[in-house]
Amino acid sequence: MAVYFDHRIESPDSAGSPIRIAWHSTYPVLAVSSVNPGNGGSVDLYLQQGEHVDHGHIERPFQPSLLRWHPSRQTLAVGWETGEVLLQSQPNGDVSSLAGVHRSCITVLEWSSNGGYLVSGDKMGVLVVWKVDSRGRIQEAPVVKHDYKMHLTHCVIRPVLPGEDLVKLARAAVSGDENALDMFNWKKTSKGGQNKTALQDTLTVFASTDDGSVHSLDEKGKSFAVVKSDSPIQKLLYLAGREVLVLITRTLLLSQYSVGPGGETQELMKVKLSGKGGQTSDITWAEKGLLIMASGEMVIRLWDLERDENYVLSLDENLGFEVGETLNCVSYCSAKGILAAGTSRGRIAMWRKVGFSSHGIQKLEGKGQWVLQTPVETEGNIIQLKWGSNANLLAVNTVSAVLILCEHVMSAHLSQQVAAVQLAPNQLSLSFFSTGTRHSLRTDMHIKGVCVSKDTVAVWNGKQITVYELSGPTLRHAGSFPCDSLAVAMHEENIYTVEPSRVQVRTLQGTVKQLLPFAEVEGNPQLLSVCGNFLVVGTDAAYIKVFDLSRREAKPHCGSKSLTDLIPGLGCITSVKCNASGTQVSVLATRADGSPDSRVYFYDVEMDTFTYFDFFTGRPPSESLQVEESERGRLQASELCGRFPVSQFWDESEQRLFVCETLLTMPSLSQAENCDSGEQEDALVVSFFSTQEYGLLLHDSYPRPAGMEALLALDVPFYYFTCKPGKKVAEGEEAPAPSSAPEMVSRRPMRDFVGLEDCDKSTREAMLNFSFYLTIGDMDEAFKSIKLIKSEAVWESMARMCVKTKRLDVARVCLGNMGHARGARALREAEAEPEVDARVAVLATQLGMLDDAERLYKSCHRYDLLNKFYQAAGQWQKAVETAESHDRVHLRATYYSYAKHLEAMGDRNLAVLYYEKSDTYRFEIPRMLLEDLPALELYVSKMKDKSLYKWWAQYLESQSKMEAALKYYEFAQDYLSLVRVHCYLSNIPKAAEIANETGNRAASYHLARQYESQNEIKQSIHFYTRAQAYNNAIRLCKENELDDQLMNLALLSNPEDMMEAACYYEDKGVHMDRAVMLYHKAGHFSKALELAFATQQFAALQLIAEDLNENSDPALLARCSDFFIEHGQYVKAVELLVAAKKYQEALQLCVDHSLTITEDLAEQMTASRDSGDLPEATRRQVLEQIADSCMRQGNYHLATKKYTQAGNKLKAMRALLKSGDTEKIVFFAGVSRQKEIYIMAANYLQSLDWRKDPEIMKNIISFYTKGRALDLLAGFYDACAQVEIDEYQNYEKALGALTEAYKCLAKAKVRNVQEQESKLAELQQKLTLVKKFIQARRLYEEDPKEAVRLCEALLEEPDLDPAVRVGDVYGLLVEHHCHQGSFQVALRTLEEMQRRLPAINVGYYVSHQSLDAMQRAMGVTFGRAGGRSRRDSGGEDDEVEEEMVDPHQGP
Description:
Helices cover 37% and strands 26% of the residues.
């Protein structure tokens, strides 16, 4: 809770009425311009408490027009009505004047964003740009001067990002600018502020004139018009982040223009703002493009330019504002998120911006994020507001005076049953709880702090301390003395104050009687706190030190402790407290970035240990917090997480008990992951037990009660809170005696002491011990501590304690001692619930702790039980909301129960609504309204529900109101009732008309019965037919021999009725074809066939046979098949034989008559192994016969399948080979795993073009290998070698293939050994010749002569070809002689080759280059074959292409 101290400025006598105020953006200095009719005008400077600044007065015989502070330096620019511009510098007060370039009133005066330029403009239209040097002095000659010849009204300078400044500075430094080089060393100066202003702006000025034009001007003097509006401009703004120029005209037309690099603009949007146009308004920016305007209305208007929305904020009379109070001016503080507005009645309205709802879950937007606060009262009409550089300063101009409001958090303190709370800047409210009295204390100072003891009150303002003592019923002044201490503490008759490096111990009159020194490294004391007989001191160097005050002089209780190394990222200490025994010290701190730390730190003085509890995670480090149940710990962590502590207190008598108040931080993604998504209380009071043995023990968490401002202290058995004046005292708390002082402190009993507020000391200690031992789980000690207590109230309090600790075993003992039989039974019945929280909620309900029960049901997500709880508590609206959002399974039941409750309460209108929602209105509402027939009839007519129409019609029929009943039966479309009533009224034709039009079966049946009773058979049969009551219609046809109608009806009816009609025709001996058809339709095939054969009805027999299948009687199938064979319908006969499982006969019939066996037919003729229809041998025989037939028909794939099913894989393979399906052949060979099949597959693959498909070659080798046909594999290798020689001249690969062939043949086991040896010898001969030729070709590079000799020797071999082609050997020799230049020898060799191989193509063996060389050398001509030429492989006349083949190319 904060209060604003108002400081009236100490203006000089010569100062007149203030007209303008301006805060410096960095320093707490306020400039005020005023007008005195006698002396002219003046400008004065003031500090934050209104003190006049020395050398801060400027006076002229004319009026000041504008005030502008330099953005970083303490330099004020003042424009005057004569055109003079003065610069006043602080702190020396030097005043300088700019060159007299203006001759009329200054209307424009602006500094650039970094202070590098000053722009001034006057009423005559002269705009001047002045440059500021690195020392902050303005150069004598202006940089730019431009005359627009029109009244200048507004001016904005385009801000420049820091990055752009540095880029420009770097460029200047590179070009040799020494000043720019100096700028990079600004960090070497003491503060760095002197050189920051030297970062010159890239100047772009936008200035408006009174004709509505806006002009752009740069530092080079280039100017051009960018905007032309229809009316004068009231406000000119620049949105720096988006580079958007915003202007608002006097007609409230808002325009936005995007700004380009050179100052050019492009219109983005125009919108007409609502409000009072044609008058001056106060318009300001808030963050993120939020525009705020006050124009003397009772509202202020806000426009969000980024979100494109607008809304208004108005005053609230309930907070103290008056009707008709208008808002004149606005000012926004971005640091605090507060919008301040001055009113015509001297009040300052403040709206605080909150980003999230009270539970911190829902993000607020628009109007909902602004919360109006209690107004600050001043005097006069407020015309101007300005927030200062310090977020706690607000300057107020009321025409007659200027006030500086300084925000101050209201002081409060409680000790020894005495509480003091600040009401106003100079007023305290004192509450003495031991006597129940209150006092109001007014002082002659602005109170900045208060401290109380049993009979003493001390107040101070940072300069003076005043002490008051309680003397009887009044307070008397006990002493006053000057002191600059901002921290004060009291203990008995001593006052403790701080000054640099020490703490002073003073008497109540201010006499210093002891000094408590601190070393330089320990810093200066700034925080004091007394608890019991101990004083704890915190310093600005983050040291803490405890002193023992129990003796005549204060003695150190322990050495000083530095927290800097113990708390990473520590900013400063904000609060230190110690317990009553001085053994524990608790610390609150801020982080290095100034944000509050989410941890509470604990220092154990005796053990010298340090720990903490983190409220952001809801847990302490590791296992320092003792929690018995993991589930309980998880729930507690979810309740405590996402918070930070704001205050802390130790109990003054119980050394173990500690409490702190926590607030929610803003939600974030990380917090959302760590915390439960349920709602959390905004302010939570959390208490702990802290001991050396057990560490930190979480005792309780308690939401701050509604209406309470803040936690003030803990004094068992109460929490003490500051509250708003006049707040009602807590239940069970005695109201203080009547007094003029408002009540500002309220106390609430701790959860463990509800009902025990007035207990004695022994009971209080017993309860605390019980709670402590219960927290650590030591039940023996817990019960020992209370074994002598007999009071039911104490046992009830302990049972309440068990709700928090969730110790249901202890709760049973407590309920037993209370004699609470109903609660014990409910707790026993609740054991069936699986969730602990649900069982604890039952206990809380029995103890009347309804809020806790509600919270527990929510925490375990038992919304069904929560729904029942709300219903039992009579909170029906919450029950309905819970059912609608979480318990939809019981939604209709909840609606129904609520409707019953409303009916019992007499609220029939609302009951009707919820009966409708529960979908029980069709019965419940007629029952409820039965005594009010007009209302019931009106409801039925309004609902237009068929069920209600029918119910009402039945009621009217029971009352013999037939005509009305017919009307509502018609509304309900109850045609049966309509027909029934018409028949009752003997209006049969109308009934028949209704039955025919609607086709309603029930109505038709009822009418048919009526006609039958009247012996109108045809009409009866007609309506029985429409009712689909065919058995009744058939009955009447048989009784009246209506054979034609009988047949049609029987075909429409069920099989039983068909059988009955067929028997009727058969017995009668007529219409036998109908009997056969009906037997057939009824599924009685045997009877139908028998009757068809007997009566020679072959057409019917044909139809019946089409419906026969394998489930029919085999004899019947055979009989039908014979019939079809006789009549030449073999396909149908085959199908019937197959259905009769006579597969061989069916197959023979197919063979005899050459019927095609389809795959479906083949599958039908294939009996499964498990069917048992055929012996296995017969089944295989049938399958082979099917396969043979398929082979004859050329269906090789089907034949393969059937051979395979018959187990004859060889025949299956032969069939597959005939199909030529290579892929399936390879697959079948792979899965068959039979030697013969492998060989067959390999032989087949050899017939393919395996030379071009390596995969086929691979499969051939694999299959021969798997089939162990090594002799065949050897033959394949031999063929491969021949291909390599003939096709590719690749003797190396041929050698490898021949080698593999030799190996395979050598391993082969053949019957004819001599033949094997002969083949081996032949292969060996081939290998020898090939090796020699390969050796000759390889040797040619090293020893051509030896290679030639080897080739000539090869030509002498008798069996050279086909192992080595003769042409290849001759070709090598010809090539050699050509390379040697022996063309004559080469020609002879070539001629010899032609004689030996007359039909060859020479170009196939000798290169074209060699042939051309011989032609040129010898003068002969060789013929070039133009197509295929003869080859000499094996002496066969195979044609080859002339095109040469690479001899090294593989197959």
